[in-house]
Amino acid sequence: MVDRGKFDPSSLEASGRKALFKACTLGKLRMARLLIEGGMNPQIVDEYGRSLLTAVVLSPRQLFEKTSLVDFLIRSGVCPNAQDVDGKSALIHAAEQ
Fold first, then answer.
1. Rounded distance, CA 14 to CA 12, Å?
2. Is the pTM of the predicted complex or chain greater than 0.90?
3. For position 15, what pLDDT does the model report?
């Protein structure tokens, strides 16, 4: 369990991404679930306007590894049509893969 007094899951890491982005990029469904259920906002975007869903789509994971996480994020309120700074949604990024 995350102790809010010792760890701020909203804090930026050296790469500029938040812990939730890292969990999604690495395909860590359990960690993403813990962070979101612990209060992190699933609507966050990175410095390029990319959503968590886009982070999952662009990750090097195999498609079968991504489906459960994508499903969870959509059920958590992440909009699949949200656009990044290039005007591309997670759906467009997925189609380009």
1. 7
2. no
3. 47
> Cα-flanking dihedrals φ and ψ of residue 45, to 5°?
-130, 160
Cα distances from 47 to residues 2, 18, 29, 64, 95, in angstroms, run 25, 10, 22, 27, 22
Q: Are 90 and 51 in contact (CB under 8 A)?
A: yes
Does the pLDDT of residue 5 top 70, yes or no? no
Interval 60-84 mean pLDDT: 90
Sole residue written with tokens 């290039």 = 86
Type and span of the H or E element at 54: helix 52-58
The 10 Å Cβ neighbour count of residue 69 is 24
* DSSP conformational letter for 93: H
